[in-house]
């Protein structure tokens, strides 16, 4: 049936695991100004505020109650069963897809479990929240590590690989994303341009609603397993 599938996930696929989204009620952007905590300028002017923003999320991620939900595990199951090419592109910085078993996975907005040297761009796995003791081992003098996440105005990771996958996919599925942040929000246009079938899985109709041929309205943890089976 399908030969090449690209799946884009956003904060909505992790919502039922207990992680806050950005733009829903009680979302992260209700409490924080994007320019203060998710831009390089914000980090330059107040690195401790930005570290606190990510450390709060780190604590949430690592409070022992956050587990992959049926949406994550269904995508991992699809990867194991599907004989064609599958790529999951996530905007999320949590590790729930990995913990569910997904391997053909690309974190286009980075990963909170890593810090990055601002000079060499080398990344380091972090076992605890950001702090002054987190410095690189690649420079002299050692540099304080920054969150390995993509802020507004920064280039997302893996765009060439994503573009290549979109150019040749015959099915594009967007799960739990509001479609407000680019270039991710434009992936559906590329998929449509190349004749792929496009499916949106969301609680509500999103900004780019009209760009999708099919809409599955409801919870990812309920709809994604049905989609995969
Ligand atoms: C860039 C940091 C240069 C990590 C984030 C056009 C082209 C290119 C760029 C732009 C452009 N126009 C504007 C721009 C600039 C900007 C941008 O998009 N601005 C917006 C606000 C207009 N983009 C950038 O700066 C990007 N970089 O452009 O580089 C460039 C130029 C050309 C080509 C390439 C590159 C960088 C963007 C990344 C910013 N970093 N976060 C972090 O802290 O996590 S953004 C942030 O938003 C997160 O990464 C998040 O993943 C992302 C998207 O949000 P969503 O995941 O969609 O979450 P949201 O809360 O919005 O929605 C949740 C959805 O889930 C809702 O729809 C809800 O209904 C649904 N839901 C909830 N529960 C469930 C559910 N669905 C199903 N089941 C449920 N249970």
Automatic annotation (TrEMBL):
<dbReference type="Pfam" id="PF02146">
    <property type="entry name" value="SIR2"/>
</dbReference>
<dbReference type="GO" id="GO:0036055">
    <property type="term" value="F:protein-succinyllysine desuccinylase activity"/>
</dbReference>
<feature type="binding site">
    <location>
        <position position="54"/>
    </location>
    <ligand>
        <name>substrate</name>
    </ligand>
</feature>
<feature type="binding site">
    <location>
        <position position="57"/>
    </location>
    <ligand>
        <name>substrate</name>
    </ligand>
</feature>
<dbReference type="InterPro" id="IPR026591">
    <property type="entry name" value="Sirtuin_cat_small_dom_sf"/>
</dbReference>
<dbReference type="GO" id="GO:0036054">
    <property type="term" value="F:protein-malonyllysine demalonylase activity"/>
</dbReference>
<keyword id="KW-0520">NAD</keyword>
<dbReference type="InterPro" id="IPR026590">
    <property type="entry name" value="Ssirtuin_cat_dom"/>
</dbReference>
<feature type="binding site">
    <location>
        <begin position="10"/>
        <end position="29"/>
    </location>
    <ligand>
        <name>NAD(+)</name>
    </ligand>
</feature>
<dbReference type="GO" id="GO:0008270">
    <property type="term" value="F:zinc ion binding"/>
</dbReference>
<dbReference type="InterPro" id="IPR003000">
    <property type="entry name" value="Sirtuin"/>
</dbReference>
<comment type="similarity">
    <text>Belongs to the sirtuin family. Class III subfamily.</text>
</comment>
<keyword id="KW-0808">Transferase</keyword>
<dbReference type="GO" id="GO:0017136">
    <property type="term" value="F:histone deacetylase activity, NAD-dependent"/>
</dbReference>
<feature type="binding site">
    <location>
        <position position="220"/>
    </location>
    <ligand>
        <name>NAD(+)</name>
    </ligand>
</feature>
<protein>
    <recommendedName>
        <fullName>NAD-dependent protein deacylase</fullName>
        <ecNumber>2.3.1.286</ecNumber>
    </recommendedName>
</protein>
<feature type="active site" description="Proton acceptor">
    <location>
        <position position="109"/>
    </location>
</feature>
<dbReference type="GO" id="GO:0070403">
    <property type="term" value="F:NAD+ binding"/>
</dbReference>
<dbReference type="GO" id="GO:0005737">
    <property type="term" value="C:cytoplasm"/>
</dbReference>
<keyword id="KW-0479">Metal-binding</keyword>
<dbReference type="InterPro" id="IPR027546">
    <property type="entry name" value="Sirtuin_class_III"/>
</dbReference>
<dbReference type="InterPro" id="IPR029035">
    <property type="entry name" value="DHS-like_NAD/FAD-binding_dom"/>
</dbReference>
<dbReference type="InterPro" id="IPR050134">
    <property type="entry name" value="NAD-dep_sirtuin_deacylases"/>
</dbReference>
<feature type="binding site">
    <location>
        <begin position="91"/>
        <end position="94"/>
    </location>
    <ligand>
        <name>NAD(+)</name>
    </ligand>
</feature>
<feature type="domain" description="Deacetylase sirtuin-type">
    <location>
        <begin position="1"/>
        <end position="229"/>
    </location>
</feature>
<feature type="binding site">
    <location>
        <position position="117"/>
    </location>
    <ligand>
        <name>Zn(2+)</name>
    </ligand>
</feature>
<feature type="binding site">
    <location>
        <begin position="202"/>
        <end position="204"/>
    </location>
    <ligand>
        <name>NAD(+)</name>
    </ligand>
</feature>
<feature type="binding site">
    <location>
        <position position="136"/>
    </location>
    <ligand>
        <name>Zn(2+)</name>
    </ligand>
</feature>
<keyword id="KW-0963">Cytoplasm</keyword>
<comment type="function">
    <text>NAD-dependent lysine deacetylase and desuccinylase that specifically removes acetyl and succinyl groups on target proteins. Modulates the activities of several proteins which are inactive in their acylated form.</text>
</comment>
<keyword id="KW-0862">Zinc</keyword>
<feature type="binding site">
    <location>
        <begin position="176"/>
        <end position="178"/>
    </location>
    <ligand>
        <name>NAD(+)</name>
    </ligand>
</feature>
